[in-house]
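Researcher: I'm preparing a figure for a lab meeting and need a structural model of a single chain. I don't have an experimental structure, so a prediction will have to do for now. The sequence is pasted below. Please return the structure as tokens so I can convert it later.
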Amino acid sequence: MTWWSRWRADIAKPEVPTKRDEAPFLVASALTITVAALLSGPSSAAALLLLTPAILAFVLRGLVPQMPAELFAAFVVVSATLAVGHDADLQVALFLSPIMVLYVSWHLGSLTRAVLITGCAAAAPILIATVLVPEADILWTPWASANVFTFVLGRGVRRQQVLIDQLEQARSALAEQAVAEERRRIARELHDLAGHTLAAVLLHVTGARHVLRRDVDEAERALLDAETVGRASLDQIRATVSALRTHERGTDRALPGSADIGVLVDEYRRAGLVVEARLPGEVTSLDGAAGVALHRIAREALANVARHAPGNHVQLTVDLDAGEVHLVVVDRGRPGVAPGSSEHHFGLVGMRERARAIGGDLEAGPTADGWRVEARLPVAVSEHRASEPGPS
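Model: Understood. Here is the structure written out token by token.
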């Protein structure tokens, strides 16, 4: 970007409108300085008339939020300069310019415009002392310095306000991100819980329907299993809602982990799903986030098979090697649902999010005769050591 484009961009920066609560201070400052100037020495009606535009400029600045800074400055500087040039005893009125510079440098986004206005305000005392009333021996240095000082002060206040606005925007963005992440977490929890529950219940109900006419006792057993799964899931839903409402994580019920995968597999086997599982002992004793994610991904993968291909044969394999746990769930029998199908959309998204949340990855897709889910999850050192058997 060239200096010309930077300068044009600076000139185009917007001006912050005056807030309503600033109006009383602006008007009070103008009136106080004007009264002090009139009381500092003998004054005439002409001098008061010359100061009137400056007073009106402060009033308009407070009442009209969009009043241009250049118009505000012109009224104040010209009015104060003419009044003091007419009557040197009114030099206290020059305080109007530093107050104006403070507000202009505070509210102007453009540094160029603020510097030009400050330069004009600082040049006014020099003009008065050297041209209009040189015989009055007015010291212009303090007045010019006062304008420069309030300019620096105003820019500092503006910088602070900009930082506050940026901090507020960042806080709002973080709050929105936290809300979105919490909604995704709740969606994953409800999807995993409801999907697993309905898949297991449907398997039991389907089994009961198939044997109802041949074996009433077996049908009753299947329906009792469905009822048991439904009641257990209702308890899990209540526990999940309770966990979402509590503020102390220590009161939450422990989440299912890798130790519960065997129970999960047995539950689907009782429901009629053919599952061949290989679960090494060091994997089933895995603790922490990896164990929870492993259980949730395995549960969702089995639930998908139960929903879409309950007649398929399932192979579930878990291995632990080099600080990484490797889960593979493959079903064979009939082709799986296409990857773009909405039936698998939320489940796949949830599984991938769980894997990525702890630094892992997950791949899933259809095979020639079923579906394959493969996840790799990192295991923390403490979790790995906790899973190793102690000395005998």
